[in-house]
Amino acid sequence: MRLVLAVSLDGRLAPPQGGAAHLGGPADRRVLEECLAWADACLVGAGTLRVHGSTCLIHGEDLLQQRRRQQRSCQPHLIVVSRQARLDGALPVFQQPLERWWLAPGQARVDRAPPWSRGVVPLPRWQALPKAMVQKGWRRLVVLGGAQLATTLAAHHLLHELHLTLCPQLLGGGRLWLQDGVSISPNLWRPVESRPLGGGEWLCRWRRQPECGPSPEHPP
Ligand SMILES: NC(=O)c1ccc[n+]([C@@H]2O[C@H](COP(=O)([O-])OP(=O)(O)OC[C@H]3O[C@@H](n4cnc5c(N)ncnc54)[C@H](OP(=O)(O)O)[C@@H]3O)[C@@H](O)[C@H]2O)c1
User: Fold this and answer.
1) Best of 83, 157, 162, 165 to mutate for ligand 1, by most ligand atoms within 8 A of CB?
2) Superfamily holding 2-212
3) What GO molecular functions are on record for this protein (predicted)?
4) pTM higher than 0.70 for the full model?
5) Which of 54, 113, 155, 175 could be disulfide-bonded to 182 (CB atoms 3.0-4.6 Å)?
């Protein structure tokens, strides 16, 4: 599971007052689309959708053709993480050309899927996430944020790759991409790539140490 975020130099993913930070330029956008082209499905927290209204789509014609050649849907499926699935039906995301699913963690009532979703994936325990995803045929997963979702996944050792674009801004405030109050193991990550994207941005990728267990997309 690959976490893909654009963050400020001080590790924020949004300005102090909240809302969209608009971090990341055209090269970061391309990197994001390449990740989407790789993915079977993307997880996004309901909070991010409430703020942004829509999700990122693949627009690059070469990437769309690549997916068609692979006989995959043009866009990866979107998995919306929410306890209640209470989202404004007028949000543009519900008009976007992709298949949407509701991932219902904890004790959420899941007797009825909301009209915007193809179905519900109940998740009583976060540790069951990899199995639940594989059962749906989703092996290559991208996590699009936000902080609450990223923090939960990191705390449960469910992330296998960190794919961060460092953007030359200092945002300050408290909107770190990892929240307080959870236990995260240090020293788990080894760098696999870092390169300039232009405009002062750097793409940095780290992979979790193999002794932490295989990921569904990289079986042993
Ligand atoms: N720079 C970037 O690349 C980037 C990317 C994404 C987001 N962002 C920014 O991040 C901010 C949003 O982040 P956020 O932390 O507030 O929101 P978030 O993680 O996107 O969403 C939080 C909501 O999602 C559901 N959720 C997420 N994790 C959950 C968990 N572990 N258990 C149960 N429900 C969970 C809950 O929905 P319900 O309330 O419906 O139960 C929760 O209220 C925005 O400002 C956005 O612009 C930046």
Assistant:
1) 83
2) Dihydrofolate Reductase, subunit A (3.40.430.10)
3) 5-amino-6-(5-phosphoribosylamino)uracil reductase activity
4) yes
5) 155
